[in-house]
Amino acid sequence: MALLEIENLVVEFATASGPFRAVDGISLSVNEGEVLAIVGESGSGKSVSMLAVMGLLPWTAKVTADRMAFRGRDLMKLSSPDRRKIIGKDIAMIFQEPIASLNPCFTVGFQIEEVLREHLGLDGKARRRRAIELLKAVGIPDPEERLGAFPHQMSGGQCQRVMIAIAIACNPKLLIADEPTTALDVTIQKQILDLLMRLQTEHGMGMIMITHNMGVVAETADRVVVQYRGRKMEEADVLSLFEAPKHAYTKALLSALPENAVGDRLPTMPDFATLEASQDLGTLR
Amino acid sequence: MNRIILETRNIVRDYHIGGSLFRKPKTVHAVKGVSLKVEEGKTLAIVGESGCGKSTLARMITMIDPPTAGELLIEGEKVDIAHQKLAPELRRKVQIVFQNPYGSLNPRQKIGDVLMEPLIINTDIPAGERRERAMQMLTKVGLDEKHFNRYPHMFSGGQRQRIAIARALMLNPKLLVLDEPVSALDLSVQAQVLNLLGDLQDEFGLTYVFISHDLSVVRYIADDVMVMYFGEAVEYGSRDEVFSSPKHDYTKTLFAATPRADVESIRARLARKAA
Amino acid sequence: MTDTSATSARMQDSSRRRRLVEFWFYFSENRGAVIGLVVFLLLVVVAIAAPLLAPHAPNAQYRDAILVPPFWEDGGRAAFPLGTDAVGRDMLSRLLYGARFSLFIGVAVTALALTVGVLIGVVAGYFRGWIDTVIMRLMDIILAFPSLLLALVLVAVLGPGLGNAMIAIALVLQPHFVRLTRAAVMGEKGREYVIAARVAGASNLRLMFKTILPNCTAPLIVQATLSVSTAILDAAALGFLGMGAQPPTPEWGTMLAEAREFILRAWWVVTFPGLAILIAVLAINLMGDGLRDALDPKLKRS
Fold it and tell me: Which of A180, A272, B76, C256 has an alpha carbon within 20 to 30 A of A2's alpha carbon?
């Protein structure tokens, strides 16, 4: 059964120079236990569409969709308290900037326990036990001690681990990871990706991996959606996408990888330059 | 053998941190004795993770910060900015391009002025010729003459990086230090900028020091590769040497951690998952 | 060649106009700011056209019309719309001329404080080290005094009078500009475009004033606007205490001081100068808030 189903999602922002369409008719679905990667460059609307699912867009955004269902319940029709019960509990999200995603004023332990209190209503002792368990699960050494640490006392990789711990605290059915490793070093990226994939298989979570990095896609995804300027270009399972990309944009994207360089220069699509030159490409990420 | 443009001998940079009322001053060794040589027209890539000292090294090579110890030689000439004023002729030989295309251009300066500023400061070329040269450089990096009077915020990231490269080239430098020039760019734009760098190197015989954390880019662009780890050069050799037989453990870890986007490795992963 | 320069001049023009349009878009979203701007412009017009608008000379004394109430009260006369003061001078005329003094004080004091403050602030923020320490401790000392008290002491030392009062107020206001400029310069100094200019060989002076300073203007403009109102207020206070403009100058604060003893008998002699000060200060503050909104880089950077 499909975990999340989106049909014809449109997101428009009101700006000083008229409405700007960041997402233009995206349809996609994720099954239980499946990893879906959404790939695209900046301005492709990949983050915006997922923020729309989470209901985290600012009020200037207008979201419409034919259908946006989580386990058969239409998210668009839910009242906001009902929706909040799902968001953060059954659907969790982690972001690109691990250090900025944590509140610098509170300890890591407090922030994990906050989620547990909010959604599960555990008492103090049980919360603490669970928080230690979670930190252990995401591979932080000395979890008892680290509960009292503040975000600035930890490295970026460790902060991302804490974010993951918070995300999986309520055993979500779906985890949305928005560029979870972009701000991290390569070796740390590897560790975080391994951790995410391990947790995904252990819990049988559905997962949406938003990224611009084809390497991350290749290492994590089952199925891939390629987006460009708010539209879906191609959807395929990961192997056929890399083996035989159908859409011209996907082909161009793959050939722009330096490791696929043939000869002295990288192939570029002339279309990109003209598109880039046009001002309205937008800076939404 | 070609001329050596850049050489460092056991170059060191320490930072002193703290030393306030309550804390003892601490010394951080950002770069611990790095030696390197770059020939004319070649590209040396310096690879490493954040905090490994690669940007500090870049700042020393660009003569922004003086080294704490060791020697820096540009075209065989010893440079010592800690003790004597830097001669303009020497200053012109090394220029830098930064990672962040949004921070490296003065938001209040028009593109034309950005490009002409180095000429105004360093030369007494008349205004008309300055303009001419700036226009030429603009077209050379793939922008239009109509962009001359625009402000940086009107450009995309890739275009700004082109402008930053054009500015660096205005003084006809010998050596260009590229500090993560494509890390902030999208894949397709990255390819364009890398191609541009290749074209410019061929045309002007430029020497590059290319700093990056992205191994696939390094493999594509570099002649020589240096891997830095906690301020030390743990691996230094030609590209093929380093990539085919890495010696240091850290280099091996780095290679293993780099995600691979080829069909075989995807197949292998899917097979592992199915099992 | 001429052709390209002509087109480029036009493009430059359109870019500037675009920025102005954008500025106005954000400024006009704040209704209070627009009202403030309108009132402020009215004040400027009044100040300039005071000789045309005022029915009487500001210092002309009418012996037969001492403490005449405003025209709508019993005993009021149409010749003196807002009444007269204790020596028979027309209130309205004095207020209109007073606008000249107040606006001049506000602008001149701010200009002085801004120039000196920015210079010192740029030096402190750019060079840091002991220069910075010395400058900032000095500013801290100035800021540690209640501002009016310090101005009062300075005027007492320099001698009372409008010019000395203005210098004193400028000195009191100037640390705010130093702090603001220093903070902005420190923030910008580490930016990559500054380093790039340094690598291009730019001298310290060029870096300080040509590269960095233009990028620090937004907070300074806001602070300068708000300083105009503070300067007007302080000058009025000094005038009220008899240390600023001296009688018979129709300065609003001095007018208040002269009217002190009639406060119970003739409400108009204190109310109108007070209102004038209130309106001028309020208008400028509202305008400053609007400027802050419009120039906030977080809102603007697209």
Answer: A180
A95, A234, A237, A80: which is closest to A166 by C-alpha? Answer: A95
Q: Which residue of C has its CA nearest to A17?
A: C22
Confidence of residue A16 (pLDDT cuts 50, 70, 90): low
Residues of A in CB contact (< 8 Å) with B are: 41-42, 185-190, 193, 201, 212-219, 238-239, 242-243, 252-254, 256-259, 261, 264-269, 272-273, 276-277, 279, 281
Q: What angle do CA A137, A139, A142 make, to 5 degrees?
A: 100
Residue A17 contacts C, CB cutoff 8 Å = no
Q: What is the mean pLDDT of residues A104-111?
A: 91
Q: Do C214 and B167 touch (CB under 8 A)?
A: no
Q: Which of A167-171, B117-121, B150-154 has the lowest mean pLDDT?
A: B150-154
Structural domains in chain C plus CATH codes: 22-53+81-299 (1.10.3720.10)
Contact A181, A216 (CB under 8 A): yes
Give the pairing of strands B224-229 and B232-238. antiparallel
What average pLDDT score do residues A108-123 get? 87
CA of B117 vs chain A CAs: smallest distance (Å):
25
- Mean pLDDT (whole number) for A247-276: 70
Structure tokens at B205: 């015989």
Decide which of 1.10.10.10, 3.40.50.2000, 3.40.50.300, 3.20.20.70 is the CATH code for B4-260: 3.40.50.300
Question: Which residues in chain C come in under a pLDDT of 70?
Answer: 1-15, 296-302
- Give B109's contacts in chain C (Cβ within 8 Å): 193
Nearest CA in chain B to C8: B149
Q: How high is the pLDDT of residue C208?
A: 92
Contact state of A266 with B194 under an 8 Å Cβ cutoff? yes
Tell me the per-residue pLDDT of B227-273, one tens digit each, with 9 for 90 and over. Answer: 999 889 999 999 999 999 999 999 999 898 888 888 888 888 888 88
Cα A235 vs. chain centroid, distance in angstroms? 17
A93-127 burial string, b = 16+ CB within 10 Å, else e? bbbbebbebbeeeebbbebbbbbbeebeeeeeeeb
- Backbone dihedral region for residue A33 (phi beyond 0: left; psi -120 to 50: alpha; all else: beta): left
Residue B224: enclosing H or E segment and its boundaries? strand B224-229
pLDDT tens column, B162-210: 999 999 999 999 999 999 888 888 888 888 899 999 999 999 999 999 9
Q: Which of A223-237, B136-150, C122-136, C285-299 has the lowest mean pLDDT?
A: C285-299
User: Which chains neighbour C (Cβ–Cβ under 8 Å, 3 or more pairs)?
Assistant: A, B
From edge to edge, which strands make up the β-sheet containing B4-17? B26-39, B4-17, B69-74, B77-79
Residue B202: what pLDDT? Answer: 92
Chain B partners within 8 Å of A244 (Cβ): none
Give residue for tokens 């006392």: A153
- Whole-number pLDDT of residue C15: 62
Asked if the Cβ–Cβ distance from B104 to C202 is below 8 Å, we say no
Q: Given CB atoms, is B243 within the 8 Å cutoff of chain A? A: no
Q: Which residues of C touch A (CB under 8 A)?
A: 22, 25, 302
- Picking from B159, B191, B269, the nearest residue to A268 by CB comes out as B191
